[in-house]
């Protein structure tokens, strides 16, 4: 149902998958293409997304995950845009209790479905089921064709209500945009929704980001307040630094909830020294990510591990031509419950095409 | 029952998309035949601005897609406008860059 769970290899990826069975919604999305075939314009609806195949070996047990994440964006008139992302996957897991063979399960669901209305140059009104803009991972890095690592960060569920999505309304946009800096914002309210298609919790929050283009630096603050049950506050901060034309990326997040907190820092690098980014060598992308979570008490209600956990991820991606990426990584997880290795390999092909043929 | 309800909603949604697009297409202005071509240095300036905006706002998160149909360039820009909170001037420059 959410992008957080949709990330393969995530610690909590399948928990909510089982709650949603929205095959009908996928079919309906496909209907959108067929019904509107007569359209043809410069703003033709697009079909994007990723098709991937992942494998992960955790503590000696290997799982396989073929996955499709289609994305649709369809403009309606000059101000309105409908966008949606779905996930279709089949998970193959080894049988437990020493039994040979594999079992498998599948999941189909909508990640989000929202309408965007451009009210003014500074305000876009978003309605529907949207990705909660808390820090950066949930709404910016979670698609399989974007994330550098197969596995999402441990703290991804903090501030995103564990579901990753809100159902309600959001205001977002660029508050100020100058050549030296820009300030963007999001403010949302989500109502409690319990149906199997758009599960969301009652919450409110927002995010403010400052971007300094000359320095390639972005800093932001996020806030989320859960307005149901035991009401909790979540605070987040992110820093991205991507110096222009250097091929270097640094991304980091910190999140703090009532019961736990944590951070992750990720670096990536592509060299131009051997013929540019598109040379054989320049397509390699070594990665490193460090992440830690800390329990503040023994109430495990936020999706984070039940004990303090540290993971060091070492990755090597290869950016093939034709929008294809190979993702590989080795991770070592350290926790009082035990230390173990995680090996992950995957390939992702990105789609970006008009929804139908045209002249 | 829920599936049927969603099917109905999406059929209606799809119809509205089709109608709105048809309307937009009918109203889309064609390039005036006597429209003056911008000077080369102006074009270059726009291209540089568009490339900078693309680099700063799009490739900051993801790799550059290896080409796509010009028929979806405006849709891409509108999608990115929401995702990356682009200003209207950035949106215009980006559209000019992607679909010169």
Descriptive keywords:
heterodimer; A: 359 residues; mainly beta; 3 helices; disordered N terminus; B: 100 residues; mainly alpha
Helix run count of chain A:
3
Biggest β-sheet: strands ordered side by side in the sheet of chain A: 1-2-3-4-5-6-7-8-9-10-11-12-13-14-15-16
Estimate nothing, just give the exact number of structural domains of chain A.
Answer: 1
Secondary-structure element pattern of chain B, one letter each: HHHH
* CATH architecture group name of chain A: Beta Barrel
Indicate the overall shape of chain A.
globular
- Which regions of chain A contain 5 or more consecutive residues with pLDDT less than 50? 1-21
The amount of beta strand of chain B, in percent, is: under 5%
Q: Can you count the helices of chain B? A: 4
* CATH level-4 homologous superfamily of chain A: Porin
User: In angstroms, what separates the terminal alpha carbons of chain A?
Assistant: 36 Å
Summarize the structure.
With 359 residues, chain A is mainly beta. Chain A contains 3 helices and 16 strands. In chain A, strand 10 (232-241) and strand 11 form a beta hairpin.
Can you give a write-up of this model?
The complex is a heterodimer of chains A (359) and B (100). Chain A has three helices and 16 strands. With 359 residues, chain A is mostly beta strands. Chain A has a single domain (3-354), classed as Porin (Beta Barrel), CATH 2.40.160.10. Chain A has a 16-stranded antiparallel barrel. Chain A is globular. Residues 1-21 of chain A have low confidence and may be disordered. Chain B has 100 residues and is mainly alpha-helical. Chain B has a domain at 38-100. Chain B is 66% helix and 0% strand. Chain B has helices at 2-27, 40-57, 73-83, 88-98. The longest helix of chain B is centred in the N-terminal third of the chain and has 26 residues, at 2-27. The N and C termini of chain B lie far apart (48 Å). The model of chain B is unreliable at 10-38 (pLDDT under 50). The chains are: A mainly beta (359), B mainly alpha (100). The interface between A and B is large, with 72 and 52 residues.
């Amino acid at each position: 149902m959410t992008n957080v769970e949709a990330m393969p290899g995530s610690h909590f990826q399948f928990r909510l998958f089982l709650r949603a069975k929205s095959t009908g919604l996928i079919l309906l999305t496909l209907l959108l293409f067929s019904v509107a075939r007569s359209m043809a314009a410069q703003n033709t609806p697009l079909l994007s997304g990723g098709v991937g195949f992942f494998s992960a070996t955790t503590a000696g047990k290997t799982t396989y995950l073929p996955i499709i994440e289609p994305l649709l964006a369809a403009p309606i008139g000059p101000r309105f845009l409908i966008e949606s992302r779905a996930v279709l996957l089949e998970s193959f897991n080894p049988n437990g209790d020493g039994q040979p063979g594999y079992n498998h399960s599948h999941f189909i669901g909508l990640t989000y479905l929202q309408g965007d209305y451009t009210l003014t140059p500074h305000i876009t009104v978003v309605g529907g089921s949207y990705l909660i803009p808390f820090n950066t991972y949930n709404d910016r890095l979670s698609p399989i064709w974007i994330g550098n690592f197969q596995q999402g960060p441990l703290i991804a569920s903090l501030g995103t209500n564990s579901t990753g999505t809100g159902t309600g309304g959001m205001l977002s946009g660029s508050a100020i945009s100058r050549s030296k800096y820009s300030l963007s914002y999001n403010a949302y309210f989500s109502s409690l929704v319990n149906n199997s298609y758009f599960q969301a919790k009652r919450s409110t929050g927002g995010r403010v980001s400052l971007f300094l283009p000359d320095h390639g630096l972005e800093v932001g603050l996020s806030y989320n307040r859960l307005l149901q049950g035991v009401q909790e506050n979540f605070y987040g901060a992110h820093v991205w630094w991507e110096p222009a034309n250097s091929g270097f990326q640094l991304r980091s997040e910190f999140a703090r909830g009532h019961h736990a907190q944590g951070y992750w820092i990720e670096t990536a690098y592509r060299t131009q020294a051997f013929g540019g980014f598109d040379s054989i060598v320049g397509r390699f992308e070594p990665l490193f990510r460090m992440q830690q979570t800390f329990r503040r008490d023994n109430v495990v209600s936020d999706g984070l591990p039940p004990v303090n956990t540290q993971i060091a991820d070492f990755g090597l991606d290869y950016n093939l031509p034709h929008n294809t990426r190979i993702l590989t990584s080795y991770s070592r997880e350290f926790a009082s419950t035990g230390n173990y290795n995680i090996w992950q390999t995957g390939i992702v092909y990105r789609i970006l095409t008009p929804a139908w043929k045209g002249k | 029952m829920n599936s049927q309800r969603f099917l109905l909603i999406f059929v209606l949604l799809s119809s509205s998309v089709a109608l709105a697009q048809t309307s937009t297409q009918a109203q889309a202005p064609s390039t005036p035949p006597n429209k003056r071509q911008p000077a080369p240095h102006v074009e270059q300036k726009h291209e540089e601005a568009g490339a900078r905006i693309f680099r700063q706002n799009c490739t900051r998160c993801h790799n550059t897609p290896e080409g796509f149909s010009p028929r979806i360039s405006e849709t891409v820009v509108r999608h990115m406008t929401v995702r990356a909170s682009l200003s209207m001037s950035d949106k215009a420059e980006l559209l000019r860059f992607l679909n010169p």
